[in-house]
Amino acid sequence: MLNLDVAPVAQSILVCAPALNTFGSPLQLNLKFFVSSLTPDMSAHVQTRLANKDSRSRGRVLLVTDHEQSTLIETLKLKGIEVVGVSTGTAAMVSLQRSRPHLVVANPLATGLSIGELARMLEQSDNGVPLVLAGEAPANHTNRLAAMQEGAFDYFELPAEIDLLVKRSEQLIALRQRIERLRADADIDFLTGLANRRRLRVSLVREVERWRRYRVPCALLLLDIDHLKVINDKFGHLAGDSVIRQIAHTLAEVSRDNDTAARVGGEEFALLLAGVEVEKAAVAAERLREAISRRLVDGVGRVTVSIGVAGCPASGTAERTLYAASDEALYVAKNGGRDRIAIAPLMQEKLPGV
Question: pTM surpassing 0.85?
Fold first, then answer.
């Protein structure tokens, strides 16, 4: 198996990228540099991802506070709940994006924290992450009502009501996990286990909105399996399904928790990279293309993909324009001979061959 990570999970296929010539001939990169990080042992990476999945099944809480909360953290851990981070108010958005918690517990007096803004941000996240407030002020009628009016589920006084806070945390985490399981049937592609087109669209809308509100970039990679019809005709549709599943497995391995890997058509896939500029996404796309082509499929052999790359804001600042830009870049990659990537131009420019 292949290790695409310089630092597993944290960087995945993303590395610092040099300036790239994005318009003109297909991207040419120093593959020696990138392939040097590909090793035949993926065990550490896979174990890390499995550990992440296991911790997510236990429940994940992000704390937003300026003060040490060792007692609360230990009490949550005793209940099997993982505290995935302790963040200040100003860093809450970045921490939320990286940790993907089931619940956020925030001190309303944390530095740089706007409860209303945090509540709106959580509401826009996947399924709506619930928010609970906890602090030193009394948990009287006035403070609890104010918390709910700001968009929080409740307010608790610490340390006096730590047991009530933990119990409410268990309830809200269980509710969030139940919602995730119910949504899975509507959001998951049955053959690959990746997100489907519907789920990709939801994620794409969310990432574009992050750009509009917080100027956090994103990038979209569209992949198409080269000559899948030939593979089906020569080896049969079961072999074609094996090809599809293996590419899906590779996408799942290299994507981070806050990315979205999806199957959007018969032989077409997408990888939505959160918080990534288009230049870095292009490097990631080339590494991904190379990794897929080096991994043989049982009974079929070498399989290649073509990849179109677009970024927000470079290629578009709306969901439809970003998808269209990546799709046009994919068209250019396939017309250029396949087994390559093409990068969408800036919004005011035009791709060759489109």
Answer: no
